[in-house]
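Hello again,

I reread your note about wanting to compare the complex against the isolated chains. To keep things tidy I'm splitting this into two emails, and this first one only covers the full assembly. Below are the input lines as submitted, including protein chains and any nucleic acid or small-molecule components. They are followed by the predicted structure of everything together. The single-chain runs will come separately.
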Amino acid sequence: MSIMGTRVLRTEDPRLLTGGGVYVDDLRLPELEQAVFATFVRSPVAHALITGIDASAALEQPGVVTVLTAADQPAGDGSPFAEPLLAADRVRYVGEPVALVLTEDRYQGEDAAELVMVEYEPLAPVTGVDAALTDEVLLFPASESNTVQTGEAGNSDDASFAGCDVVLERTTVNQRLAPVPLEGRAAAASLEDGRLTFWCSTQNAQLARGAIAGTLGLDPAAVRVIAPDVGGGFGAKVAVDRDCLCIAFAARHAGRAVRWAETRSENLVGMTHGRAQRQTYKIGGTRDGRILAYHLDVVQDCGGYPRIAVLLASLTQLMAPGVYDIPNAGAAFRAVVTNTTPVGAYRGAGRPEATAAIERAVSEFAAEIGMDPAEVRRRNLVTPDKFPFTTPTGATYDTGEYVAALDKVLAAADYAGLRAEQARRRERGDPVQLGVGLSCYVEVTAIDGADGETGRLVVHEDGSATVYTGSSAHGQGHHTAWAMLVQDELGIPMDRVTVIHGDTDAIPDAIGTFGSRSLQLGGSAVYQAAAEVRDKARRLAAGMIEASEADLELDPERGTWQVRGDPATGLSWAEIAQHAGPDGLSADVRFTASAPTFPFGTHLAVVEVDVETGKATLVRHVTVDDAGKIVNPVLAEGQRHGGIAQGAAQALFEEVRYDADGNPLTSTLADYAAITATELPSFELVASETPTTINPLGVKGIGEAGTIGSTPAVQNAVIDAVSHLGVRHIEMPASPERVWAAISEARAGR
Amino acid sequence: MRVNGTEVAAEVEDRLLLAHFVREVAGLTATNIGCDTTSCGACTVLLDGESVKSCTVLAAQADGCEVTTCEGLAGPDGQMHPVQQAFHTEHGLQCGFCTPGMVMAAVSLLAENPDPSEQEVRAALEGNLCRCTGYHNIVRAVLAAARAGVREGGAR
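Full-complex prediction:
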């Protein structure tokens, strides 16, 4: 029986559970024994000119090896929005690295960093997108504008709304979030014989190597990057950021091994944030529930430097129409810099923002025409006969069963029963009202499928196998899933398959992990490598047994090759590998996909709202998350659970906040409301598998789907709970204060 | 102090945190540090049997005490503790960074309340953040460990 699709427990677990993982800060290697500790001096102001740095007092402190400033760093690339390693003449956000103190001991670094005197000449801070758009104060005077890039797509214009019975328009905020991987950023660097070894908590060792080599002017072959265990990434650990690059630079500059692990307070201002869009949606349709036109206008806050926030906005634009067949749909964006922490990818990266906008818009449209929100959705979903379906914004959805996903969730949740209970509570004026929120979503995964991913499989002379994968794991369970693929294809048992990733010496060419690409690209590469090894083995076995290749079969249970129906002729993998000669029995593959895949689903959230306090509590969350074929339900469900929680957190709790001067108000975990176990229910997952034809495994990405679906479902549920009181919209996070204010305003008839 | 049954003695700075003592002096790195405000619980250990966040205890305060970390839970034959086993069986961990602290918090809970409800488990873990699992399978793991403990007539 095939192991595919079965509930296999993780092979990664025993090590992580007993001795703990080995994260960067846990490395106890000879190369790092004499390492100095790096401590950053960070900007305490949002926007200022640096007029002087005096490190003399710090240099006199015990244990201080050196203090690095911009004066020591390599020249930048001279582009108008160039980001230095250490701030040179100007700081653009609180938390920006200004100097780096190297000390013999970790605690000495904290002491010495406080004694580095930096003189700032304050500039007016640009702390919101409105201020940025005026261009009255420029972050990069050489660029002449704070707007980094604009885009537009689709076919929605004023005329497309002209024939609508109802047109609604609303400006809303998809608030800034902090990714908060439990392990913050960490790096260590050592130099030996002119070669730099760099350990980093990263999702992409190979991309990191390229960035380091480029920044330091080194031959990539002179850089080895190793990602040991990585304590969560969520998009914020793609490749390396400037702080990590500073560590590589410092090791080279000081000629010493260097190690660094940021504190959480640094992490919350120094690691990229996510989301940070102001959105204006416009939706129009008929009173019988047909949506005719939709337009989304986005202002993307990039933060202090434009890293990849433009990409986020372009993905929002691409996915703006969501799961609906809308004749006229479009989107546009402007991406601007502000004096805040730079914005980057965070679980979903542009797609949660698109989904939040249209799912809010559709629910508001349903409320306006007085139709059940599930029914409005059903009337507008792309139907199965339309696939592949190309949207006005340019996405081509591969496969989907959107109506079926909605119906499965409604049935599993007992939607009619929930509405009846809601009606009873409304009837009796219960202080705890019930809200039901829906979100139907589609997202895009492996958008860079053409770049592909690498996989190398080696079968050893003892019959065991090693997989070298370009995909890098940080909790997803690649070791387990990849070993399952090998067992299924070759009959080599999982426990005899070793999976190696995240080391550029072992795997020089790879992309790594982001955008829910791992299984469909990295997994397909492993699958393809296994298929090639299988073909090679068949040829070798045919020669060894002196039979025709066509007469041979692989017995997957025993892992032996034999003449069809004649087990006595069986050859083991070990025997064939021994026979394979000096090149061994292996295959080296780069799998590329012709197009992205489009996972989809429906989320239904049930929320209780205490109308006297405004407190909203998520009490049920029911989902279909269809990501094609499932290799291992245990892993897929785990990804969905984590995603649902992070998405619900955006709807109810989490927000990075700044004051008017650009000072962060959420720079510790005591202030940033990372969601906890008490704030969540157990989740109700409904199975659904609609394969794609884009890759041989039939799989799509599952890593971000939960986050994308859950946020609008929960937000819609909160609003639904108090809609009978006249509330039409509540911003995220739907804090008790906001909910209470919305109820009060509605009751006052405002 | 005794860490996982082994005597560990060192002259340390007054300000050295227990978390750093365990990691740097005792050399036990399963205990992770995830924040600087006693919010995340990644550094949870048992101090004389009670769960504490070791980033908020000075090493000097633990002088003469018994400290148990995640490395100290497995049996002498290396067999996983029922709580560790349940985290594996229920897929209660992904990246693993919060896991040692989460396991210690769960061990502490079950010592006080061998048969908790789901809500009691959630309340007991409120001080331990996990970013990967959405807590769903962690809660299931703790409940499963409780059931296993009952079946075995009490956990180790």
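For quick reference: The two ends of chain B are 22 Å apart (CA to CA).

B.
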